[in-house]
Specification:
This protein is mainly α. The protein contains 5 helices and no strands.
Length: 143
């Protein structure tokens, strides 16, 4: 057996021993907690899923920005290569569509009853629902 060196005191006070035991308990508790955290697969899987979801969202946003930039670039390239008569026809068609839309809005304001105008969004939503239902019924009948 090895003897302790002569310059270290061999006897410790009870206070020092208690303090050392308490410190050891805290270290052991921290170690056990760290092991428990590693063993908690469900929580680790959730954390990993959240991290992957955030990373996927960031990538999607990045790719979306790149796609928009590319679309703008392509649109400018196409616009530069279009002959002037085609551009003029397109501008004229767009202007005609705007005028027709304005006329339709005016007819709507003039001829539609006030109650219908007040509830236009609800009526359009209802018409959309009826249309979808009809399409689903028709599709089911074709099977």
């Amino acid at each position: 057996m090895t003897q302790p060196p002569h310059d270290e005191p061999t006897a410790r006070s009870q206070g020092e021993l208690r303090e050392q035991v308490e410190h050891t308990r805290h270290e052991l508790g921290d170690t056990v907690q760290a092991l428990a955290d590693r063993a908690d697969v469900k929580t680790r899987a959730r954390e990993k899923a959240v991290a992957v979801r955030e990373q996927a969202g960031a990538k999607a946003q990045e790719w979306s920005g790149q796609a928009r930039a590319k679309a703008v670039q392509v649109a400018h390239t196409v616009e530069e290569k279009l002959p002037e008569p085609v551009k003029q026809k397109g501008a004229a068609a767009a202007q005609g569509a705007k005028e027709k839309a304005a006329q339709a809005e005016q007819v709507w304001q003039d001829k539609a009853p006030q109650q219908v105008r007040d509830h236009r969004a609800a009526l359009l939503a209802g018409a959309g629902v009826v249309l979808v239902a009809c399409l689903l019924i028709r599709r089911r009948g074709n099977r």
